[in-house]
Amino acid sequence: MSNKKNVFKTLVALTLAGVCSLFVACGKGGNGESGSSGSSDGGVFDSDAKAIVKDVYNGTHNFTAPDTDASLVSNGSCEYTIVIPENRGAQVNMAKNELVKFFAEATGVTLPVVTDGEFTDNGKGFISLGRTSLLASSGVSVDYKKLTEDGVRIKTEGKNIYLVGGGDYGTLYAVYDFLEIYFDFDVYYKDCYEINKNVKNLKLKNFDVTDIPDLEFRSNGYYQLVKDEWMYRFRVPRTYGTITFPIYEVVGDPSTSARGVHNSLNWLPKDQFYVAHHDWYNDSGTELCYTAHGNREEYEEMMQACVDKAVATLKYYDKEEFPYLRILNFTQQDNYDVCACAACSANVSKYGTNSSSLILFMNDLRTRIDAAMANLDEKYRRDDMTLTFFAYLYSETAPDAKFAEMHLNDGVSVFLATSATFDHQSSIYSDSNTEGRENLKNWGKLSNDILLWTYSTKFSHYMYPVDTYNFYGEDAYTFFAANNVKLMYNQSQVTQKGTATAWHNLKAYLDSKFEWDGTRDSAYYTEKYMNAMFGEAAPVMKEIYTAVRLQAGIVKTKYNGFSLLSSVTDLENPSFWPSFTIRQWLEKYDEAYAALETYRLSDPAAYELYKSHIDAEYLSPAYMMLVLYKNTLSAIEAATIKERFREAVKVTGITNVCETGSNQIGSFVSGL
């Protein structure tokens, strides 16, 4: 879009009592014309939104959409009809609703909707959503396999526009691409998005769009927070757990535990097998031995027990009722208790890594599961299923690709959890990430599909800033895509509700952008976010953000080589956050709130929305001051900060100060 770098159009929606919405439009869009909504550059995204990256991944993000001579909207009128399939899923229904809603907000026109069974072509034009009969007879080429489930295809044929995805989610995302190309649509937060308004005239575009996510599956790292419409508009409606088979200790018995990860002892529960089969476990009984201590007879019985568990799981979660389950996780416990028996040690000596025994075991298990599936009814077979294992803690390092038997069989994937090898607070190309880069590359040589688990918060300190922006930039995401990463789960504040603070809401937005297209420019999208979220207070909030990042970077240097996840790195340390620094931030927040006064009378709804966004970020330094320096505050200072903190908690609904525990914010506020 032309001028997207310099002109920001913000539309914020305030939901009242969960029933009605009040909308406030700021910026461009009041002249009754489409202005620069894509026509001058053929629909291709602004080059300022792209960054030059060090690694190369030839992703498909083709937004060819030049104007034609025909009209889509003329003098505030549109004769087009939306056509949906007679049989459709929930995502296509949402796609229809989103298209109707936002097209009406932009143009004032509410498009009619009919099913393909009801539709009679009057020659005035239609927008086909999903796999309609109209699409089937159109001659439009759609490579569903290449698109993957989430990929987008938009094509114009004659007067008609076809929006479809590789799967139903892709059809929904096709609507968002359509809206972005026509109306500069973007979503920043649960109550904040931008769209051109008062658009009275639009040319029909000759769409030839193919938009495929660089990372096929983008797992939501804020799934208690980024939910409802927000998660769909961020294109992260699922976490990895949504597509992972739960592994019960006893399949079908809900009284026994079910786990998606750290579940090796759910596959082979000790209370069922340990007495008769000691060799299946390490000497302490805290983890499996994946060689059965070299006892071939025990190994065969162990393998059969695992096949039986897999078959029982596939039959319990049949694909007709649970079509989105794809990952059969067989993952080690959350400890360093690797088996050190002679057989496992021999594999380490031969292949150089503890992961070798896991690879041999999983390749064998997958072969046997496939053989067992061949004898099952069709509804239990899963051609798209992948058997995954963790490369984590003691097994994180990949073996050398020169060993043919270390290559993962088809249908086996590694779930690389980078707790040890990546420095998540430095650039992917920093010296501290050399080991992590090489390790991921080595896994990429062994596996066509890497599932990647990364980290971007301090789980014990949700309220404190952690600068991971240097790592989670365009270079990292392109590097991941170029090295066979297909799924990414950036674990962050997964238990947080209401809002996040310490700039984690920005992290969630940037994640949603880069996981789709790793070459998007972080500075460009950060600028967009700031202007959309804070209005007239944006310049001050940018100053605060820069200062917070600077101090968080200083804090990182004080870790003395320990990682973000290390228990040694206690962020609640006054030496990390000087009193005068936090005071300066709080004074800047006074400026930010004051900058909103222009809205208080002229646009009260905008005032409340922008203020709530500032409130979310204010929570962090206010909490730090009340925890670290409460005894240094004067009575007036303490009362002022406490009052504003209580109000911000009430407005935002934030719940957690750390990952685990209940009533955390409530207890803190009660103790003020």
Characterization of the model:
The chain is an alpha/beta fold and 672 residues long. Helix content is 36%, strand content 15%. It has 20 helices and 21 strands. The strands form 5 sheets. It has a 7-stranded mixed beta sheet. It has a 6-stranded parallel beta sheet with strand order 14-21-20-19-18-17, covered by helices on one side. Strands 2-1-11-10 form a 4-stranded antiparallel beta sheet. α8 (296-316) crosses α10, α13 crosses α14 (522-534) and α16 runs antiparallel to α18. The radius of gyration is 27 Å and the shape is globular. Residues 1-43 have low confidence and may be disordered.
Ordered list of secondary-structure elements with their pairings:
Elements: E1 10-16, E2 20-26, E3 61-64, E4 67-73, E5 81-84, H1 90-107, E6 113-115, E7 126-129, H2 133-136, H3 144-147, E8 152-157, E9 160-165, H4 168-183, E10 186-189, E11 192-194, E12 202-205, E13 208-211, E14 217-219, H5 228-233, E15 247-248, E16 258-259, H6 264-267, H7 270-273, H8 296-316, E17 327-329, H9 342-351, H10 355-373, E18 386-391, E19 412-417, H11 434-446, E20 450-455, H12 474-482, E21 485-491, H13 504-514, H14 522-534, H15 538-557, H16 579-595, H17 597-602, H18 604-628, H19 635-652, H20 664-670
Parallel strand pairs: 5-6, 5-7, 7-9, 14-21, 17-18, 18-19, 19-20, 20-21
Antiparallel strand pairs: 1-2, 1-11, 3-13, 4-12, 8-9, 8-13, 10-11, 15-16
